[in-house]
Amino acid sequence: MNHEQRAFKRILWGLVFLIDIRMWGVLDILPDVFGMLLVLKSLTELQQTAPSFYRAKRFMPVVIVLTGYELIGPFFGGLMGEQLWLWSAIVQSIAILATNIYLIWLLTSGVREWANSKSLSKLADTAKRRGLFYGAVNLFGTVIMLAFSIVSPSIFTALGQPMSFMYVIITVMVIALFKQAAAIAAEK
To answer: Over the stretch 52-102, which tens digit does the pLDDT of each residue have?
Structure first.
């Protein structure tokens, strides 16, 4: 297994941690911060292969701090007042959404640049489409959910599960991109 294949596989597994599987609605079984540490390790190996991988590596401290806070934040919720906790959760959610979209854009752009350097135009096109799709669906979904949370809490509640399912699907699509890149890297 060459270093590119190993790094792509590690990113693949790191991204699996972005899928929230919660026990009792609170405890995330796969904390994002551990997955992001896998991604950081991989980016250290890939940073020379594409400029976007280098930019992603430089962005990772922000991602790790936010995902680390996401892990320990609920334990400090009782120390804050209810209003402060709610505002903190809203700001945290927006920050994590923005960083995830940007990180996925950088990672898919890295695959695109790597694929272009190997004359793999089909993989490069797939990477570009998946990055755009991930960002657009997340942003659109968040705006829709925010609007319905204000206008109609009952519709907001009804849309919660389908929107979560859509997030899992688009995350799996990005994961599949890295599986494809790892398979191609094994051939080269």
So the answer is: 999 999 999 999 999 998 888 777 766 777 777 777 777 888 898 999 999
How many whole angstroms separate alpha carbon 11 and alpha carbon 110?
12
Contact 116, 125 (CB under 8 A): no
In the numeric block, the tokens 């809490």 are attached to 153
Give the separation between CA 118 and CA 156, rounded to whole angstroms: 45
pLDDT in tens, 97-140: 999 999 999 999 999 999 999 999 999 999 999 999 999 999 98
Element (H, E) at 107: helix 82-117
Cβ contact 99:64 at 8 Å: no
**Phi and psi at residue 158, in whole multiples of 5°?**
-65, -30
